[in-house]
Amino acid sequence: VKSCVLLAGLLAAGETAVIEPEASRDHTERMLLGAGVDVRRDGLRVSLDRAEGIELPDLVVPGDPSSAAFHLAAAAIVPGSRILLRNMGSNWTRTGFLRILERMGATLGAELEPAGAPLTRGEPVCDLEMAHAGLRGTVVRADEVPLAIDELPLVALLGCFAEGETIVSGAAELRVKESDRIATVVDGLRGLGATIEATRDGFVVAGTGGLRGGVLHAHGDHRLAMLGAVAGLASAEGVEVVGMEAASVSYPGFVGDLAQLAVI
Length: 264
What we know:
The protein has 2 domains: 2-49, no CATH class; 65-260, Enolpyruvate transferase domain (UDP-n-acetylglucosamine1-carboxyvinyl-transferase, Chain). The protein is built from 8 helices and 12 strands. It has helices spanning 2-9, 27-34, 65-77, 96-103, 152-161, 181-191, 222-234, 254-260; strands at 15-19, 40-42, 45-49, 82-89, 108-112, 125-131, 139-140, 165-168, 195-199, 202-206, 214-217, 239-242. The strands form 4 sheets. Strands 7-8-10-9 form a 4-stranded mixed β-sheet, covered by helices on one side.
């Protein structure tokens, strides 16, 4: 919504401003700044004035952190894994999942702005390395949710392989995604052997160190399909994902990339 309002503001008379309840992704602001638009931020208030005839210079889009998260989760739960992701976007508004991963015990090694990184017009990038590690449960607070909303289903999966309890709250927005992700993630993981309960605005996972496996229905949700594929890598009996084609909505090459990493 913020991006729509700001883009509309480029052709509106006077100042257009958005006041956010919490800090959210700022890719649009960075892109417009790169095009010479005077985008102003004062705390949670973002504003701009009418701007005609702007020209956006060529830019390279960094690797998507939300897509990379599935490979990072796979490395975290598959014994013997090690992965290196090059030129991944490291915008601070997209790294909430990485901070949760570290809190759960993952060891991340990042080289910020590596030599030879492409020109990204204000979007920071990094080379990120991660290896398999023992995980522990964690509590994801409501104030962390906006910066990790798309990766919270993966937090539920990681919680299944962790020691202790993993709790996510303040994430009611998950109920109005491509599916009701609280319901579909809880039902899907429970069908694979997880001990997990839904709450009004999140879920509670009792870590058992692994999953049995089975069948997971994607319900047309790309992130649920990819979650099922990752779960299958580390479950005892594997996972059959019904509706895997949904992954192509955001990541058409997901299955091929996973295969290239020699994990399926």
